[in-house]
Specification:
Shape: rod-shaped
Family: Belongs to the FtsL family.
Subcellular location: Cell inner membrane; Cell membrane
Mean pLDDT: 91
Protein name: Cell division protein FtsL
Structural class: mainly alpha
Largest sheet: none
Radius of gyration: 35 Å
InterPro entries: Cell_div_FtsL
Helix content: over 70%
Number of helices: 2
Membrane topology: Single-pass type II membrane protein
């Protein structure tokens, strides 16, 4: 009986050790994946900030006015050119 108990305890100890090794290995793999995902997140946050700045620059009203005047030849109508249409 004590020999059987000794074998069971040894097998339990070995199984426990294998479980600990597997858990640590899995933890390391997940930690590396987490670090990579955090790096991608940081790069995306930087790009998002840059795109927001670019959008703010492009959408600026005086920039739109400048492009409309230079590229499209647009201008404000003279008072005589304005026609009011009433229903």
């Amino acid at each position: 009986m004590s020999r059987f108990l000794m074998v069971v305890l040894i097998l339990g100890g070995i199984a426990s050790a294998i479980g600990v090794v597997y858990a640590r290995h899995r933890h390391r793999l997940l930690f590396v994946e987490l670090a990579q995902l955090e790096k991608v997140r940081d790069e995306l946050n930087i790009e998002f900030g840059r795109l927001q700045l670019e959008q703010a620059t492009v959408a600026e009203s005086n920039r739109i006015d400048q492009i409309a005047r230079l590229r499209l030849g647009m201008k404000f109508p003279e008072a005589g050119d304005v026609v009011v249409v009433r229903p």
